[in-house]
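User: Quick sanity check before I run a bigger batch. Here is a single chain. Can you write out its predicted 3D structure?
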Amino acid sequence: METQALIMFAVIGIVAGWIASIVTGGGGLIRYLITGVLGAFVGGFLLSALGISLGIANPLVAQIITATIGAIVVVLIARLIA
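Assistant: Done. Predicted structure follows.
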């Protein structure tokens, strides 16, 4: 991957993790990054498995929303396990 793509991936992860922390509570920059990046994978998998399309024309916004949905799921599952 290019450096610019990795930076954008990290920024999307941090933003998604921050939004998820507003919904679920808690936070910190590293936690935002971890939950956002994991959430991007989980959200992408869940939305495609369920056949859900967000229908948003802006791909950056669609990626952030998908990652946020996944990050919320990741945090909730982690809390259930803990």
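The two ends are 34 Å apart (CA to CA).

User: Great, the batch can go ahead then.
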